[in-house]
Amino acid sequence: MQTVLLLTCATWYALSVHAQSSLYGQCGGIGWAGATTCVSGSVCTVLNDYYYQCLPGAASASNPITTSAPTTTPAGGSPVSSSTASAPSSAPSASCSDLPTNPGPLRLVGVNIAGFDFGCSTDGTCTASGAWPPLLQYYGADGAGQMQHFVEDDGYNVFRLPVGWQFLTNNVLGGDLNETNVAEYDALVQACLATGASCIIDLHNYARWDGEIIGQGGPTNEQFAAIWTSIATKYASEDKIIFGVMNEPHDIPDIDTWGQSVQAAVTAIRQAGATTQLILLPGNDYTSAEEFISNGSADALNVVTNPDGSITNLVFDVHKYLDSDNSGTNAECVTNNIDDAWEPLTQWLRCNGRQAFNTETGGGNTASCETYMCQQVTYQQQNSDVLLGYVGWAAGNFMNTYVLSETPTESGSTWTDAALVSACMAPK
Ligand SMILES: *[C@@H]1O[C@H](CO)[C@@H](O)[C@H](O)[C@H]1NC(C)=O
Ligand SMILES: *[C@@H]1O[C@H](CO)[C@@H](O)[C@H](O)[C@H]1NC(C)=O
């Protein structure tokens, strides 16, 4: 492994162009085609095969420094150092890329309770009339019963409750909530809170309103902030509410400008009095865990802060499916995502003192998905210092025939889980 790494580095340097990566920017790794040298005061450091990063320190060698080999280092053991260069004393300790020695259980594990997002498309067109409450009193599935079952029988402790922006305002752009519609959504929120679980309010609009991108030609940051002011004012005193700023932004022209839109939402939520709850910060590419670093989301969102300048309870929102095109539409799974997504992400998070939450993942109820999902779950558990947990997609109003159904079947007073949930997604 080390030999391969060094040869690969030499090749990069022979071909290297002379642009330099910024502090904490990527400077190499399999598939990386960008700059391979770092700005003055930082040094290119091999975190793993897929991700080299510019970390603070004086460059004393022209080759990247290998701080450790996470896949071959036993937890708690000494990192294996390469002989190409020694880490300068001012560089962060190699431990930021080690596996944690005592990872605890994942903090939050659960499932999406879909329905209020029905009618939403990836262009941010959410037809208010398309929303279908997953509650018996509104002729939907028994979302309240499902959540109770998931908590009692499976040990789940978080539910994500997707909803379209247009539904909350009854198609009026801005921040004024439609009381009739919000009363229906709040019934689901209250059913969630009644189970004792945490409840994610997920604005399911793909960074858009009717095809136009927030802060980049579509709704203004003020309009985006206004909807969050209204929602956060309503739930300011509920500790177990988690604010999911936006579902799956994609094809965002300017990621730093998007970071400013996310900042506007965070500021609005905190100033509305929701000062302590978790807020989830979403990046580009459908919040892909795999593209989070390489496509600039990590850098753009790493500068988002609370009004007091802190980053307390600001957590990155990432999604990842296990099928061949990461779309979450295929019954068969082909990857556990560890090498391509979770390992580079966890190293970056650890080295930057940040955390992420995987709020959508899932697969078919098939043998291939059981295998890969269980590997992914195990990896996330081993890295619970930087990964808060996962939320499966999806239950609620999805039928059991839906390809990614995690909807349990009720028979009398007994609930039976989907195969993938039973296999290893349920902690109990
Ligand atoms: C709220 O939405 C309902 C549709 O659910 C609509 O009939 C009603 O007119 C709206 N209320 C206001 C004040 O716009
Ligand atoms: C990165 O984001 C840009 C702009 O949204 C997009 O065009 C590009 O496809 C993304 N790259 C990857 C690898 O997803």
From TrEMBL:
Q: Which Pfam families match?
A: CBM_1, Cellulase
Keyword field contains Transmembrane:
no
Among the GO biological process terms of this entry, one is: cellulose catabolic process
This enzyme's EC code(s): 3.2.1.4
Signal peptide range? 1-19
Alphabetically sorted, this entry's keywords are: Carbohydrate metabolism, Cellulose degradation, Glycosidase, Hydrolase, Polysaccharide degradation, Signal
Q: Which reaction does it catalyse?
A: Endohydrolysis of (1->4)-beta-D-glucosidic linkages in cellulose, lichenin and cereal beta-D-glucans
What are this entry's molecular-function GO terms?
A: cellulase activity; cellulose binding
- Top-rank taxon of the source lineage equals Eukaryota
Q: Where is this region: Disordered?
A: 69-97
Q: Which family does it belong to?
A: Belongs to the glycosyl hydrolase 5 (cellulase A) family.
What this protein is called in its record is cellulase
* Provenance organism: Obba rivulosa
